TrEMBL record:
Ranges of compositional bias, category Low complexity: 14-27
Stretches that traverse the bilayer: 219-238, 244-263, 270-287
This protein's name: DUF6594 domain-containing protein
rRNA-binding as UniProt keyword: no
Stretches for region Disordered: 1-33
Keyword Membrane listed: yes
Organism in which the protein naturally occurs: Triangularia setosa
Residue intervals of the DUF6594 domain: 40-281
Cleavable signal peptide: none
Record keywords: Membrane, Transmembrane, Transmembrane helix
Organism ancestry: Eukaryota, Fungi, Dikarya, Ascomycota, Pezizomycotina
Amino acid sequence: MKSECPSSPPGAWLSQPESQQSPLPQYEPRHNNWQSQGGYGELSWFMNSSPDQNFNQVRKFGRLSTRCLLYLQDELSEMELRLDTMDKSYHGSLTRRRDTHPHRKALVALIQEKLQTYNNLVIQRAEMQKLKPANSSQSRHYELWVNEMKPLIKEELDSLRHEDDRIVLGGPDRDWLYKKIERFYWPIFTSERERKIAPDYPFILYSSETRLRRATRSLVLLGTLAFILGPILALSYIENKNGRLGIVCGSISGFGLLVTIMTKTRTFEIAAAIAAYAAVVTVFLGAT
């Protein structure tokens, strides 16, 4: 039975006067709503729910990209060999304007097209390699949410479970100390903004990048002060020459280890920091 209602052409709703248009449904945030809608809408909402983009993880398809590059590389190698064979077989002019061999011109045009595809893929692959993989904490929370909520069918969920192939789109630049602190699930690392999201998924930790960064800097500051004030106080009370030299050598070595492990500093900056610290300790040693 055919419908009595005439079909409207695409875009007819937009051409109607505003007074005749039916109102759009009102969007309501999902906070505190445990009725999961499922599907890619729910998954994309979760992936973008973290303020520091911890859960915005996608696959880079590294193996497939490499395989495509290898295929294109071999195709270009075959074309290169065919072109060399043509150059040896036909002794006419090898310039473009005087080349009378149509197949050679067609092959060069095909090589140009294939080479452009290959170069673009190489550049894209190099840019993709710069993106950081998901660390263990990020992957754990991502997998926990996927296994708990199951927003997709099994085959689609299986395509997401490739921890070694996932990269994070954004997020803070994490050094060693930041990653260690991030593992502690302390309420002090959660701000009011994250607490508004947390009731939707109480089994997921939403941490504040700002608070974690402040905690990291505070620990680095305390460690630096300890390595500066500690040796100075120790040298003030120790008069034994061997003991004083041991304190100086130990403090310089410890400070270098602290800077190397706890910060993402370049090599020459590490050397400059250690040299400056050694100068301070040595000056105080000579003064006492």
